[in-house]
Amino acid sequence: MQQFLKESALVDFSHPDIQALAHTLAEGLTSDEEIAKRCFLHVRDKIRHSGDAKDDITTYKASDVLKYKTGWCYAKSILLAALLRANGIPAGFCYQRLSCSEYEQDVYCLHGLNAVYLKEYGWYRIDARGNKEGVDAQFMPPYEKLAFELQEGETDLPDIYDEPLNVVVEALKKNKTYDEMIHHFPDIK
After folding, report:
1. CA-CA distances (angstroms) from residue 39 to 35, 54, 104, 156?
2. Among 128, 23, 147, which residue's Cα sits nearest to residue 70?
3. Which of 11, 21, 24, 170 has a CA-to-CA distance to 188 between 20 and 30 Å?
4. How confident is the model at residue 113 (pLDDT cuts 50, 70, 90)?
5. pTM for this structure?
6. By CB neighbour count within 10 A (0-12 exposed, 13-18 middle, 19+ buried), where does 68 fall?
7. What are the backbone angles phi and psi of residue 71, rounded to the nearest 5°?
8. CA nearest 177: which of 48, 57, 53, 49?
């Protein structure tokens, strides 16, 4: 479980702003489930989804996602992992391979989300992408309510990773603007 609690260059939870927010979000709470829910709601509702907002900045390090208050699903999952890990709650990265027809026809891409280890339930997937019309991700263990239900041709990647996939990190680092990102979403076959 230690690899799901570690800090890294992207999951930079010792950054003072991440530490301050993690402490604030956990204040007055005693269970890992309550803290995880509060962290999830903060990232889902207070950090803009770069695609929805059409923000012309691509963040990827947790402290930058927090600083600019925007990120693609992948970046939001990095911030959520940092907040959870800062509170001693194991968190990992999960992916779905979805149709990206919202942006381009006949294109598939990865969608980033998290798995959190809750003492009462074990691993539980959560999706802090951000809600909008047609998207209603919730935190209600043991029931999973992700942003997207799989359609024909779409799939869940079965693994929980301790770090974001390299293909995701490379896409976030390379594609700096909204237009660059929507034409170069990360994908694996």
Report:
1. 6, 24, 32, 23
2. 128
3. 11
4. very high
5. 0.96
6. middle
7. 180, 150
8. 57
Euclidean distance between CA atoms 81 and 188, whole angstroms: 22
Tell me whether the omega of the peptide bond preceding residue 141 falls within 30 degrees of 0, making it cis.
no
Average pLDDT on 97-121 reads 88
For the chain, count helices (H), then strands (E): 7, 8
Burial 22-31 (b: 16+ CB within 10 A, else e): beebbeeeee
Q: Torsion angle of alpha carbons 42, 45, 46, 49, nearest 10°?
A: 120
Contact 18, 66 (CB under 8 A): yes
Q: What is the mean pLDDT of residues 82-107?
A: 89
pLDDT digits (tens, 9 = 90+) for 168-177: 999 999 999 9
What distance in Å separates the CA atoms of residue 140 and residue 120, rounded to the nearest whole number?
13
